[in-house]
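Structure ticket #2291
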Amino acid sequence: MMSRICCMNKLAYTVAITAAVFATAYGAQSQETFDVGVSTILTPPGSVIQGIQVRQALELVADWQNEQGGVIGKKIKLVIADDQGTTEGGRTVAERLITRDKVSVITGQASSNVVLSSLEVAKKYGIPVVNVNGWASGIRTAGIPQVFSPGPYTTRVITATVDTLLALGSKKVIGAFDNTDAGFSLEKEMSKQLKERAPQIQYRSIILDRAAKDYLPVVLQMQAEKPDVIVSELIAPAGYILMNQLYDQGVAPTKDTIFFEMGGMTDNPDFWKNIRGAGKGALAFGHYHPKFDLPAIGVEFRKRFVERYKAEPGRLSFQAADALFVIIDAAKRANSTEPAALTEALANTDYVGTRGKITFDKTPGPTFNQWVEVPYAIYQITAVDQKLDDTTLLKQSDGPLEVKAIVAP
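Resolution: structure written out below.
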């Protein structure tokens, strides 16, 4: 009997020692690195070019910070996963990054449906999410305290668009939106604001399948209606197809019909590779323009980006950079990389990022945990193959639209 008890005690001791060794090893590993989960688009059906821009910026900022010693003594380790820009992909990736990879925070999401699918996951595990490019209002109105948005949002985008339509004196407008969470959210807000702020504008919206390869029937219908302005939210590659077909049919941009690109794709690196003459004369909405007066960190980021990638950064580059910069700032202020401490610090962010001073609104509703004053630009493309630097900046954030500077195609 004594022999059996001794064996059992010895087994218990061995198990305890093994567990202690494992815990120590895991603890040492977690202390060595600050593991940041990156959920972004690496393969279709989502917009891969968006995922590339996000990944490039995050890798640049992580390396930059690591050159300076990391964060509170830890090197930043990006754990990158492909969400494909889909709802299921977003949910699966978020769960895996948290439960398997043990990340402290998640960022990198380039589409609204991905962010929306990760909301309950973030809440369930108490892991903060810093949203790079989810525009949909539902991300904010859900009121999840772990989710923060230093990038674009529906209310801001549509307010700027309606301001532009009013300044142009528009009388008849058609809006084209894709069948995504962002598209539905933007379409709903556009209809609401036009009804409230500009009832004199005759308006109709169309929802298009983002996976379609041909929009000609819709284009011909638009041609018959002869609108003053066609507003498109479609992102690449669907947005490229629509722009080209509108141009090929002589619908827009023309002297009679303005094409307003609202989806923010005109600064994509592959824009001119996919757009023929369709870009010339178009008005565009963006969250970055080279003529912005950037803070010092924004100037340095742009310089490093050009040196590293031999190309100009786009708005997604700056959005992703700011997402990681606010995470770094939160970790430093909290003196911790623990999720709860990061969440609390993020809520009290007051940080000058690449495009301006970032704070997060605490008001419940469509601006909850949102950088409300996120900057934007309205500009016109006046030549084929034109660089973003050379486009005509018509409006910066809440300033007036320089209507007289618009050139007819």
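Closing remark: The radius of gyration is 24 Å.
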